[in-house]
What does this fold into?
Amino acid sequence: MSRLDSFIRRLEAQRALINWAVTAFGENSGLALEVGLGNGRTYDHLREKLPGWRIVAFDRANNANPRSVPPPGDLILGEFADNLPAFARSHPGAAKLIHADAGLGDPEANARQVANLSNWLPPLAASGAIILSDQKLDHEALQPRVPPVEIPANRYFVYVRA
Ligand SMILES: C[S@@+](CC[C@H](N)C(=O)[O-])C[C@H]1O[C@@H](n2cnc3c(N)ncnc32)[C@H](O)[C@@H]1O
It folds into this structure.
């Protein structure tokens, strides 16, 4: 598969799963986390689909499109290693939805990142929270779910926080 096809499939999976996840919440307010702001495309989609929610984004640097930069206080810049555990200490179990899109090109670095995220995300998530991830996570508190919408196999992963 070409990289273009792979990229398009990733974006389609992100959109399908975010669109599904936001319908899972009856509430019109809550906390969602965007782990890896990047260009801000998925942040922008979350923001559009979750009016009234606070959406906090994490990245080591702000490279987002100017139209997709979170408001002051909702963009936390720096390493996940510092900021995800710190946010979990200040907002334990507060997020109802977490979207993590932070895969790395280098397989070894990616494996370390995945292992770390597997440990950093559960303390951030409320019981019953939905976690969408571009990488397969592994933690006893993260219960895998078959993606409830049609996406390419192993392209995106869905978990519910126990
Ligand atoms: C694929 S991009 C996210 C794209 C985003 N979903 C979008 O729609 O534009 C991943 C982002 O994660 C950030 N990132 C990856 N590892 C990180 C780490 N350990 N600490 C902080 N940021 C990290 C990168 O800087 C990058 O901007």
In short: The longest strand covers residues 125-133. Helices lie at 3-23, 41-49, 80-90, 107-120.
